[in-house]
């Protein structure tokens, strides 16, 4: 989840500069007015139900998207037709796939918090216009904090002697865990960009999972039942056409994060944590240094280059260190105290005092969020203890990744803050 800050001139200046540089990014902040909503445009609610897991009213609201424009739809349809012929030459007998349009889909809790934003493409077959296929666009990251997590996280693990280039090319396996699913934009982006990635996703609320699949175009084949099996023995042909195997490298589990990680035996190269409930609270057990969760997380993180990225709010009320609610006086204390507590917990448990690694935070532009990055292995050589060397290494790697991954946004912009 994220929160929008009060308008200030500094944010507007950064906004204008970024737009000029990266106007080709369909998820650029330039287009945020299309999906943020306003008093005059509340969007169209396509799903609404009450959660049984403490998230309150879960809804998905649709808004029109101006990109890609209609002039590009014919080219997209040609690529879809080529893909149909590659997967199943006989599939076209039901008519060509046509683009119906593009929409933003916003996942909300209690009609207030925006938990996730995704762009979806709607298509149909000429001979069966009544059946509409939704596909989330994996290349499009609309929310700045997700771009921050991706940019800072991948830059960091690449700086820890992990061969990220081979993973991107599919020559090396990379195991990633996402705690908190939302609409699924983060795991889809990672699986689409990193050919060697296997992405596990943990989400406690079955309603959120259902909303992402039914209303936000997340691939249904990626969901695993509580018995550990896929919902289908093999993907539908339309899934093969749309996803090109991405959906087969994502495993979405309905589970409590603590229980999942405690009972897990996998070793992960990267772990992303973005888990907020209906009250917009980051559960205390997910950052309590004495919790089973953090201790188990430490055991499941690769000892040489393991990297954890956590999305944190910079301006919301939070529980005290012991899990109790703050008093009226404590609530007015600066958020720096809360962020520093979470950072200290993750660093102490995952790296240890005097351990080989580091922890740092990155401010997210345009929204009041902070990305916490904790990694192992950065400090193996004595020279890495030099702050300037660490900073220069991160900057260099961010520029390299931006080029190699062909990112539509500036990786450096979300790393140097």
TrEMBL record:
A Gene Ontology MF term for this entry?
A: methyltransferase activity
Taxonomy, top ranks, is: Eukaryota, Viridiplantae, Streptophyta, Embryophyta, Tracheophyta
Q: Which family does it belong to?
A: Belongs to the methyltransferase superfamily.
Species for this entry: Mucuna pruriens
Q: Name one GO biological process term.
A: methylation
Superkingdom of origin organism: Eukaryota
InterPro entries (UniProt xref): Lys/N-term_MeTrsfase_sf, SAM-dependent_MTases_sf
Sorted alphabetically, which keywords does the UniProt record give? Answer: Methyltransferase, Transferase
What name appears for this protein in its UniProt entry? S-adenosyl-L-methionine-dependent methyltransferase superfamily protein
């Amino acid at each position: 989840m994220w929160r929008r800050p009060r308008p200030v001139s500094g944010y507007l200046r950064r906004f204008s500069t970024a737009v000029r540089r990266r106007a080709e990014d369909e998820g650029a902040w330039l287009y945020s007015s299309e999906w943020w909503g306003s008093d005059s445009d509340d969007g169209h609610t396509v799903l609404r139900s009450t959660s049984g897991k403490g998230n309150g009213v879960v809804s998905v609201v649709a808004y029109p998207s101006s990109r890609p424009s209609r002039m590009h739809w014919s080219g997209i349809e040609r690529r879809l037709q080529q893909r149909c012929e590659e997967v199943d030459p006989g599939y076209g007998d039901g008519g060509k796939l046509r683009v119906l349009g593009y929409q933003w889909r916003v996942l909300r809790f209690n009609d207030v918090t925006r938990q996730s934003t995704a762009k979806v493409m709607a298509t149909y077959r000429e001979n069966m216009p009544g059946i509409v296929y939704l596909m989330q666009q994996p290349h499009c990251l609309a929310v700045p904090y997700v771009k921050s997590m991706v940019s800072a996280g991948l830059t960091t693990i690449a700086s820890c002697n992990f061969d990220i280039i081979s993973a991107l090319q599919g020559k090396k396996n990379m195991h990633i865990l996402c705690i908190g699913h939302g609409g699924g934009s983060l795991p889809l982006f990672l699986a689409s960009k990193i050919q060697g990635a296997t992405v596990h996703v943990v989400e406690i609320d079955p309603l959120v999972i259902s909303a992402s699949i039914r209303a936000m175009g997340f691939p249904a084949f990626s969901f695993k039942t509580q018995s550990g099996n896929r919902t289908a023995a093999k993907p539908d042909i339309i899934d093969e056409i749309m996803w090109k195997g991405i959906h087969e490298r994502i495993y979405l589990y309905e589970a409590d994060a603590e229980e999942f990680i405690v009972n897990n035996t996998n070793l992960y190269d990267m772990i992303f944590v973005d888990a907020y409930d209906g009250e917009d609270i980051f559960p205390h057990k997910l950052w309590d240094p004495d919790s089973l969760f953090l201790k188990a997380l430490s055991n499941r993180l690769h000892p040489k280059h393991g990297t954890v990225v956590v999305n944190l709010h910079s301006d919301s009320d939070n529980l005290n260190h012991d899990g109790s609610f703050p008093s009226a006086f404590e609530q007015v204390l600066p958020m720096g105290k809360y962020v520093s507590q979470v950072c200290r917990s993750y660093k102490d448990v995952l790296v240890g005092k005097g351990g080989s690694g580091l922890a740092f935070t990155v401010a997210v532009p345009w929204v009041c969020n902070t990305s916490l990055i904790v990694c192992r292995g950065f400090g193996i050589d004595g020279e890495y203890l030099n702050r300037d060397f660490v900073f220069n290494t991160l900057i260099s790697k961010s520029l390299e990744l931006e080029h190699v991954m062909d990112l539509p946004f500036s990786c450096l912009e979300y790393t140097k803050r």
